[in-house]
Design brief:
Blueprint lengths: L27 E3 L17 H5 L5 E7 L5 E5 L2 E8 L2 E6 L6 E8 L3 E5 L7 H14 L10 E16 L10 H8 L1 E16 L14 E7 L6 E11 L5 E5 L2
Antiparallel strand pairs: 1-6, 2-3, 2-6, 3-4, 4-5, 7-12, 8-9, 8-11, 8-12, 9-10, 10-11
Length: 246
């Protein structure tokens, strides 16, 4: 995988008590996505390098301070996919970068669960992950956030990449959504990381879904990282999900 040299993307120095962490869960959660609509998702100064340094087996998703790009963490390698104007860039994140949102877990070993052929859409996938997580001994219905990975072949998918706050008009949420870069891919293999948690809808995921995932694919000309949107068609029988083995 070819990755550009790390650079300092953002110059913000926000330090606010906007972070939340649910220590009862195997997933650590920093930030609250509901604060986007009030322009208060500024982070608490947590450096991403301090998180990944805790274990060589850190996995996670998030956003850097300034909300530019999609963070993807696998085996403690943290990448940020972002747009510099019209130019897409994928970079390993510099040690001093801070996060405004992060959902992460240290997972030394994963347990594979084959996804049934009937699971084809994002909604199918979300429902299956909820069922499979409960069968694996997790308690998402009781409020536990569950780390999850996905390997699959996507016939089609839609992605987006956040691109800052915008000008705040007519309100902060609409401005944030307007700034995103949206796109799609066909016939790609994806490796996705994320969390499943009905209790954290809106806090750590879209308010309409309990599943939040970022993906990487090398089926494109250059490796690509983005947010996996809820418009997805999985090739029947191609998918495997993974949960922490212990």
């Amino acid at each position: 995988m070819r990755i550009a040299q790390p650079v300092r993307i953002l110059g913000h120095a926000w330090r606010r008590e906007a972070a939340r962490c649910f220590s009862s869960s195997p997933v650590g959660i920093i930030g609250d996505l509901r604060q986007i609509k009030t322009n208060e998702l500024k982070g608490d100064g947590t450096r991403l390098s301090d998180i990944v340094a805790r274990s060589p087996h850190t996995y996670g998703i998030g956003m850097l301070d300034g909300m530019v790009g999609e963070v993807f963490i696998k085996n403690s390698t943290a990448l940020n996919g972002w747009f510099d104007g019209m130019q897409y860039r994928l970079e390993e994140i510099a040690p001093d970068e801070t996060v405004c949102f992060l959902a992460y877990a240290q997972v030394p070993e994963w347990r594979a669960v084959r996804v049934p052929v009937r699971v084809r859409t994002f909604a199918d996938l979300e429902a299956f992950i909820g069922e499979a997580a409960a069968e694996a001994g997790f308690d998402p219905a009781g409020g536990e956030a569950v780390p999850v990975r996905l390997e699959a072949y996507a016939n089609t998918l839609k992605w987006f990449i956040v691109n800052g706050e915008g000008n705040g008009a007519p309100d902060h949420l609409q401005s944030f959504f307007r700034q995103r870069v949206l796109g799609g891919l066909d016939d790609v293999e994806i490796d996705a990381v994320g969390l499943y948690s009905p209790a954290h809808k809106g806090i750590a995921s879209n308010p309409n879904t309990a599943l939040h995932m970022h993906f990487i694919t090398e089926s494109t000309k250059e490796p690509f990282v983005g947010h996996l949107d809820d418009d997805l068609e999985i090739r029947s029988g191609s998918a495997t999900v993974f949960f922490p083995a212990s």
